[in-house]
Amino acid sequence: MRLANILLATTILGSAAGGALAGLAADLGDISMGGRVKQGVAFGYSELTDGMLRLAQANYIVETDISWKPTKTLAVTGKFWLRGDWVDSWGADLMGSGIQNPYSPNATQQYGYHLNRKGGGRDDPFGNTVDHQNRYLDDFEDEMIRELAIKITDEYNRYAIKIGKFVRGWGQSDGIRLLDVLHAQDLRMKGVLGDSDEIRIPNWMVAVDLNFDEMGIAKPFEWIGLTKPGLELIFMPETQHDLFVINNPTPGDVTAGGLYGFPFPYLIDPVSGKGIPYFAAHLNDVTPREFSVTDATLAARFKFQALHGEGTLNAYYGWQELPIVKMRDSTLHVGSATHQADQALLNVPLSQPLLETLVHAPGVGYLDAMRTTSGGLLGSLGQLLGGYPINLYGCATGILPPLCSVTTNFDLDYKYRKKLVGATFTRDMVELAFGPKDVAPVFRMEASYEFDKPFNRYRVKTNVGTEAYGTNALISSVDESVAFRDQLSIMVGFDYFLWLPFWESQESSIFTSFQLFNIITEDSKDLMFQSPYAAFGSKVHPVQTYASFLWWKALDDGRLYLEGLAAYDFQNEGFAYRQRIDFNYFGDNIRPRVEIIHYEGKTEQGLFGLYDNADAIEFSLTYQF
User: Fold this and answer.
1) What is the sign, positive or negative, of the torsion defined by CA atoms of 137, 142, 148, 154?
2) What are the angstrom distances between the C-alpha of 482 and each of 119, 494, 541?
3) 270 in a domain, yes or no?
């Protein structure tokens, strides 16, 4: 049995025994329990729904919180939830996009496929692609336990030790993570605009907090102007990575992530502008050991006060949350244009070097042959007469050639270390107070420096001596396709409680927070932003700039609550906005909410381009107890 399972079983038994004893004897301490039940219904309005308001999500959460404090120095906490999405059983019909459609003009368009219902037909050749993977996120250890931990605090507040499964948040930034790296993110339900405390994935870990003042060792730090010093140490033997779904409608990998599933990448040749048909991918996760003491994540945060503000120094040694894509072997399906091995006349294995040669060989390879083929007529008649797109791989012989296709195995490799240092600083700028109420802004700064961050290359040298870039660069060896670069990230922001001079009846301030991000990548030329999204020039910029703006305001004595979050990607001209409206008119238990999420971005360029079709309006009802 894994050590994590032993710890899990021990903690559950201890918590259950403690709860039973607390029910028998009041003097055992305080025990409390609460929770919520939330059901949402979201209507999308993007290409996935043909631009119309259509049912797109039906997310639900059932959550229970338990805490038991038998003594002043000991606390046991538990948080459990069940999440999922009913939308596949509620009759929703989202049309995603998949591999290149050879019957479209120059094969530049993609086959569609139904994410939630049965498909079939020429424009959706894969038939039943119903996928229930988001209906119940019910793996008890990985998905249902949000917190199950014991915290021991010294009675003199010299130290605190917390052991179990829980979450620790670092950093100062909203929406874009620089130092909040302790935990991977679950992007399956809400994407990057979900609540940070909901999308963080908890880990089995140990956290130690040391108060240098109470320990009597603060003097050396005070001599250099650092007061109230303290240290947080993290030992995390459990490894997690970001959770997401790539919509991949091929017989070898039928997955559907619904509204927030990442789209299958366009396969476009940047030289000719033509699509690259007859290629499909099968994806395989390659991860570190899920639980390992010797390969554990280590992190530390030094906290202090200085210059009339609060600061931290941070260090992290763990694992990457996002993967590097590596091409492996392939299979040539002779007699099937849609990668269906069971319908092919012959399935021929192709090694990685062999397929790389067949694709990139000058004059005779797939790409050169495709680029020199004339447009011809559309559809299957055009193929028979030699027009683009002809079916290659040596299958185009005779008047009626057997159609062929290739399925390539790609590893999504998470086995790269993340090595990062950083700092934060926050200060009330009392010298700059202004406005009708003479309010001081709050200055916030956050910076991180990551060493040897892995990237896929956007431009590579192939094994036949040619140069390939864009989508074509994915057909290359691992030695050519991966590079390592240092990356510096800086955020500067200001918070301000705004009072409007022309709003005489304003009963409370409007909280505002503006943040500007610069992400500087060393020698960034010819690196992919995030493979496999490379077809439309999604390259890493030398300096990537984002801006975010958060605001919230309570109206009608707090019964109407408004909150907005906006983010802008300067280099890729991407934009995202989330607007929430909470109605607190129904007592302490019932909480209706309207939430609008909108993304704009160029296809496959930058983060917001990946979510361009995730626009939605959600109506939800939460019952709190």
Assistant:
1) negative
2) 37, 38, 17
3) no
Token reading at 20: 């039973």
> Which residue, chain included where needed, has tokens 């129904």?
586
Q: Classify residue 360: in a domain, yes or no.
A: no
Phi, psi for residue 393 in degrees, rounded to 5: 65, 25
- Going 179 to 180 to 183 to 189, the CA torsion angle's sign is negative
- Residue 349, Cβ density class (10 Å: 0-12 exposed, 13-18 middle, ≥19 buried): exposed
Residue that the structure tokens 């994540």 belong to: 297
Contact criterion met (CB below 8 Å) for 237 and 293: yes
Dump the DSSP string for 116-147.
SSB--STTSTT-B----TTT-B--IIIIIEEE
* Number of compact structural domains in the chain: 1
Q: What is the DSSP string of 421-461?
A: EEEEEEEE-GGG-BTTTTBPPEEEEEEEEEEEEEEEBSEEE
Tokens representing 48 are 């996935």
CA distance 201 to 224: 38
Residue 585, token pair as written in the block: 């008119």
Q: Among the residues of 216-267, which ranges form H helices? A: 219-223
Q: Which residues of 430-444 are buried (b: 16+ CB within 10 A; e: fewer)?
A: eeeeeeeeebbbbbb
Nearest to 528 by CA among 192, 239, 265: 265
C-beta neighbour count of 559 within 10 angstroms = 12
Residue ranges in the chain whose pLDDT is less than 70: 1-29, 116-131, 374-394, 396-402, 534-537
Structure tokens given for 170:
């670092």
In which domain, by residue range, is 598 found?
445-454+485-625
Query: Each residue of 308-318: pLDDT tens digit?
Result: 999 999 999 99
Q: Is the model's pTM score more than 0.70?
A: yes
Specify the pairing of strand 279-286 against strand 404-413. parallel
Contact, 239 vs 292, CB < 8 A?
yes
Residue 234 to residues 77, 199, 269, Cα–Cα distance (Å) = 18, 20, 46
Task: Determine the pLDDT at residue 130.
Answer: 57
Which residue shows structure tokens 């503000």?
A: 309
Supply angle C-alpha 13, 16, 18, rounded to 5: 105
> Is residue 388 assigned to a domain?
no
* Beta strand residue intervals within 320-369, DSSP E: 324-334, 346-350
Q: Could you give phi then psi for residue 214, rounded to 5 degrees?
A: -70, -25
Cβ contacts of 397 within 8 Å, gap of 6 or more: none
In a domain, 4, yes or no: no
**CA 78, CA 165: separation in Å to the nearest integer?**
9
H or E element at residue 371: helix 366-371
Q: How many whole angstroms separate alpha carbon 292 and alpha carbon 205?
A: 11
Cα 310–Cα 311–Cα 315 angle in degrees, nearest 5: 155
